[in-house]
Design goal:
alpha+beta, 6-stranded mixed sheet, 3-stranded mixed sheet, 32% helix
Amino acid sequence: MAKKKRLRTWVKVVLVAIPVIAAIVCLIVFAFKLKDIHYTSDLNEFTTEEVKAYFDANDIDNSFTLWFRDLIGKEKEIDLFEDYDVSFESITKLKIEAHEKQFKGYIKNDDQFYCFDEDGKLLKIASEKIKNKPKVKGLKITNATLYKKIGVTNKKQFDAVLQVANGVADYDFQVKKITVNKNCEVSIVIGKVRIDLGTTTNLKKKLSDLNDMSKNLKKYKGVLNMKFVNNEGKYILKRDKKSKNH
């Protein structure tokens, strides 16, 4: 008899729990439908509208789940951000404070500027030139979908560009342009000097040596040959004949 009573008690608990759980799930799914965001960031790379467009494209539409995952330290990965914090302004509106990803460079295509991250993902299509980011030349785009890696005719070329773009980000010198040729040899422009890095072999050593020389490069105009690593850190600078420092 005692066993039967316990069984009936558990059945009653389950019968009560099921509709309660269903009601909670429905509340989370429908009542916490994300309708608006209050967005602030450190770099201002993206507008509120662009963040909303990303959320729509990736089916991020529930304020509770986004907030709860942030609360427990299991944040949903968002391609636009390095990290972010979420808080409620209402059950359908969230405040998002983000540390945005920095663009590694951009490709000009049909009078638009395609900005990509460290993995080559297209994060933004801008109508105006992006300041303080290297322009990439030598790549031919075959397809470009937001939040996906940009498709190009030669993937090895793009991989070489990404290695260089990510590498130079570790240093203080400002790169204006990155150019890659059909042999996957890369050149960059700093000030009025073109630096021929060649292939990405020994890239870390080349960039480290370049960093040591970068301050002095500002007073020159010409081409610095760094295709091959010099153990003494010495490379040949062919100065422009029109340079005042020649």
